[in-house]
Specification:
By secondary structure, the protein is mostly helical. The chain has a single domain, classed as Globins (Globin-like, Orthogonal Bundle). It contains three helices and no strands. Helix 1 packs antiparallel against helix 3 and helix 2 crosses helix 3.
Length: about 80
């Protein structure tokens, strides 16, 4: 990823974190709307799944740069 792409990802996640619960609702609602056949792959109560998505959003904000640095150090 380029530095600009990393910044875009981090900026996007900064915007999502405060509304992570709503974003998760929107994501799963849309997923099951366009692909109802996948609903059975998820638990009936999505509460825990949504909490994990919230945690992921908080951690991924910083992960893109760390991943790029790790890849770069492996290549060098």
């Amino acid at each position: 990823m380029t530095p600009q792409q990393i910044d875009l990802v981090q900026t996007s996640f900064k915007k999502v974190v405060p509304i992570a619960g709503t974003a998760a609702d929107l994501f799963y609602d849309r997923l099951f709307e366009i692909a109802p056949e996948v609903r059975s792959l998820f638990p009936q109560d999505l509460g825990e799944q949504k909490e994990e998505a919230d945690d992921d959003a908080r951690h991924r904000r910083f992960g893109a740069r760390k991943l790029t640095n790790t890849i770069d150090s492996c290549i060098d």
